[in-house]
Amino acid sequence: MLPENTAAGSGEFSARVAPLVHSAQTGGGLSLASAPLPPLPWEMEGQQPPQADLQTLAPDLLAVSPEMKAFVDSIDPSLSPNQRMRRILRTLRQQRFFMEYDLDTTATAAETFSQQRGNCISFAAMIVALAREVGVPAHFNRVYAPKERRATRSDSGRVLVENVLHINAEISYGWSTRIVEMNFEPRSHYRHEKLSDEDVQVLYLNNLALSEARDENFDAAIGIARQALTLSPESSVVWNTLGYLYRRQGSLELAELSYTRAIALDDKNVSAKRNLQRVYQLQSRRELLQAAESSPITDQDS
Fold it and tell me: What are the respective helix, strand and coil percentages of the chain, to the nearest 5?
């Protein structure tokens, strides 16, 4: 599964996606789909747009490790690519390959194969990587199953609610395809939508940003979210995550800009609308506090 903040690993795609912070419900006055996009937060800060460097930022999600290659090479090379891929899946099941599900671990294909721990993005990445290694086309899908929610509480008592999305893998055998769910579970009957490798990489980075935020490494988290946005500037999910990170950092104006952009890109992003309302509440409190502090204090005789 993948949170949608959400984070995807299965997002506050990895496919988890952007955070949904507890707040009051938002009315219908936040429809911004037809409004012009607000300036980018780094434009407000007078900075240059971030440059993506995925080689140093994160491991290659679909890289095949020597261990994986040795496993593929052990499958009879005289078979056709399709036959070898079917044999790979059958061998994994016979060897009782089982990935321990951990929503907070968005592992690469190689890490999943070695450690057998991760989320739905992790398992799908492993299957896609193995299929391509034997020459069989494969891609990721987003599954439109009802969203799950998970609430976590930090040491400081803050509650983060994450909407969990689901990702699986699809293998093409030419005239037929096979959906591979996490741990080879029965195929979901919900609608699927093909995702590009870039889409999934964005969700992967979104999850990494949320992982850094859980450890309160907000500068690192914001840097990763910005890198994700260089790949997909119109990802409402990542903009929602960036707004959450800015809010946690205390940068309410940048949080407001990020949430507003998330809503402008996707008017159905309820998480961003609720989070934006929360920012407005915090801004009002800050203004009231500043007004109180600036008011002259007078003594009053009793």
Answer: 45, 15, 35
pTM of the model: 0.73
**Contact between residue 256 and residue 283 where contact means Cβ atoms under 8 Å apart:** yes
Amino acid letter, residue 164? V
CB 129 within 8 A of CB 109: yes
DSSP 196: -
Q: How far apart are CA 42 and CA 99, in angstroms?
A: 39
Per-residue pLDDT reduced to its tens digit, 136-171? 999 999 988 766 655 555 555 555 556 667 899 999
The one-letter amino acid at 299: D
Q: Look at 18 and 95; give whichever has higher pLDDT.
A: 95
Are 17 and 239 within 8 A, CB to CB? no
Looking up tokens 């949904």, which residue turns up? 20
Per-residue confidence (pLDDT) for residue 20, from 0 to 100:
40
C-alpha dist (Å) from residue 141 to 10, 102, 125, 183: 12, 19, 11, 16
153 has which bridge partners?
159
CA distances for 164 relative to 8, 157, 209, 238, 266, angstroms: 7, 21, 16, 14, 18
Are 201 and 231 contacting, i.e. CB atoms less than 8 angstroms apart?
A: yes
Longest dimension (CA), the chain: 99
Distance, in Å, from the CA atom of 141 to the CA atom of 196, rounded to the nearest integer, reads 8
CB atoms within 10 A of CB 186: 7
Q: Where are the domains of the chain?
A: 2-23+35-216
Q: Dig out the tokens for 164 from the structure.
A: 């969990």
Domain 2-23+35-216 has CATH 3.90.470: no
Report how far apart the first and last C-alpha atoms of the chain are (Å, whole number).
Answer: 65
